[in-house]
Amino acid sequence: MKKLLFIYLALISLFVIYVYQYQNSETTNREWEEHELRGSVDETYVMVTFQTGIDYWKRALKGFEDAAEALNVSVEYRGATQYDVNEEITALEQVIAKHPAGIAVSTMDPEALNPAIDKAVEAGIPVVMFDADAPDSKAYAFIGTDNYEAGATAAHKMAELLDETGQVGIITHPYQLNHQERTDGFHATMKQEYPKMTVVDIKDGRGDQMISKDASLELISEYPDLKGIFASEANGGVGVGMAALEQNKEDSLHIISFDTDKGTLDMIEEGVISATMAQGTREMGYWSLQFLFHLQHNLVSDINGETTLPPHVDTGIKIVTEENVKDYYSIE
Amino acid sequence: MKKLLFIYLALISLFVIYVYQYQNSETTNREWEEHELRGSVDETYVMVTFQTGIDYWKRALKGFEDAAEALNVSVEYRGATQYDVNEEITALEQVIAKHPAGIAVSTMDPEALNPAIDKAVEAGIPVVMFDADAPDSKAYAFIGTDNYEAGATAAHKMAELLDETGQVGIITHPYQLNHQERTDGFHATMKQEYPKMTVVDIKDGRGDQMISKDASLELISEYPDLKGIFASEANGGVGVGMAALEQNKEDSLHIISFDTDKGTLDMIEEGVISATMAQGTREMGYWSLQFLFHLQHNLVSDINGETTLPPHVDTGIKIVTEENVKDYYSIE
Questions:
Q1: Beta carbons of B89 and B109 less than 8 angstroms apart
Q2: Which terminus of chain B faces fewer neighbouring Cβ atoms within 10 Å, N or C?
Q3: Is residue B18 one of the residues assigned to a domain?
């Protein structure tokens, strides 16, 4: 009898502890569910770009992954391997077919991807644009550089380098919207805020090192008093640097470029390029994923069901010079 | 002996279960810690405004509270009860003295709060601006309406209402930056995109109903063909509505106003005001808290320790008309 009593006691204890523990785990589960900023690993968010292999996207993807880790969701990276708009459309269509939890797209054409983007949104897949916008698409938000402001920032830096006096030129890519905006921001700021400075010419470098170098050589010979050149993208900046080196102008000519690829950083270290504009690419990726997560979990709809996500996020610009160039080599 | 054996068995079982359970709770705790987007309730974030009692802030505070709930942190609401810049500075100083986890500030003056804001940032307290910016302060970001864009949106709506033809006027507050920007956006869009429309005059309504009403009566008598008036803020809009009613012009004159206070919504219901621009005030509060949390938890610093938060977030504009006005009464 007494043996049995002990067995009963042991079993009852076990049962009580089991129930207690079960309740505990229930509480824990309930807390996870209530806590809104945690997804599940089955939830896959996809980043879609073009020229997928270039270094430029690494930091955007890093931000995308960092946010995914914080939110406990999964990510994938897809896109066009080449600079080919049809390839990017196909890649996006393939991603849509899998009905992921959300898609962040950087488009190489402000119009061509719209039908695919709109199809995704209509199918209930959250889409945001980053870095390069498709303004007339149904994507919920754009997260990227305010290029006009970035041009203005470059102009202020140029004015500082030249003590607010002298002639400057611009090498740009006149058929791409973001480059037009950078050029406009630079030009307008010079005109409005620095009366002793003049933008003498704007030349087309076509995003190519050699063409930009030749355009710079022309500028230098046409304007012997030229004190500075602003290049609106990285290849152009390196081309300008090559022209300055060829003419032994690397000390007298101040060059401001854009982005932080290795060629540009090397020329900053060598003192050929004075400064370059670093974009907030990690932030583009980070907040893209945050926004997609908020859309997927209905954390951003108003009482009438309308989405109320900020439509435009400027991820800002940092100025890189000889002083802080070391930091930018290590950023991947 | 056998009795004792059972007691031992029972005790051993209890111990095993205890250890198992303890390990389980360890795992749970570790998961909470690893999960970066969860704070503690001791962490207090403060929203600071002016005229703290007005309805306008309710939605911003709602967004601030929603984000706090999602992130498991606490919030407080402080500020100047009056439209008094010294009172707001004092309120901000008192908040700083308590060293909270972060402060979101909407300033009634783009300069006057800068010393206090900078003091907070230097003391290691994250600060972001929302709704009304202090652009030269050390605050990390501004989250609010892009007022130039909002004016442009109002211009497009006006063009739609008037079939892109006719004379329009503007009633504004010419000494406040956000109103200047709204006016500029409206004016420039009309000029650039609607060649058959003319902005005939811009009058000062001083943010006051009666002064705006009188200014509108002048506009109406000076320009008998006037087809529309854009008011850059809510009191002005109601004043324009009163003038239209007095002149029996409520059917022939299209009025576009700003914000969604009860007086404006009532005039939309009555068909006196055609449309008003609703700001994303909930989003200002929501993303302000998110940004402060990210600053507090060092989730936004780059390899070199520099903060990399998006410096500027446009929370967008929604157009409210007779069709959707009902939804906006219920928003608090």
A1: no
A2: N
A3: no
Does one domain contain both B124 and B174?
A: no
- The pLDDT tens digits of the residues spanning B106-146 come to 998 889 999 999 999 999 999 999 999 999 999 999 999 99
Could you identify the residue written with the tokens 């503007």?
B170
User: Is the interface score ipTM higher than 0.85?
Assistant: no
Domains: count for chain B: 2
Interchain CB distance below 8 Å, B280 and A9: no
Shared domain for B266 and B163, answered yes or no, is yes
CATH number at residue A57: 3.40.50.2300
Helix (H, G, I), strand (E, B) or coil at B188: helix
Any idea which residue has 């401001």 for tokens? A256
Same domain, A151 and A259: yes
Using CA atoms, how far apart are residues A270 and A26, in angstroms rounded to an integer? 62
Does B259 fall in a domain?
yes
Instruction: Provide the whole-model pTM.
Output: 0.83
A200 CB-contact burial (10 Å; exposed 0-12 / middle 13-18 / buried 19+): middle
CA distance A115 to B114: 47
Domain coverage including residue A241: 147-278+321-329
Task: Give the torsion through C-alpha atoms of A62, A68, A74, A77, to 10 deg.
Answer: -30
Contacts B303 to A, Cβ<8 Å: 327, 330-331
Closest CA to A60 of A94, A113, A105: A105
CA distance B6 to chain A (A): 6
Which residue of A14, A21, A314 is in closest CB contact with B310? A314
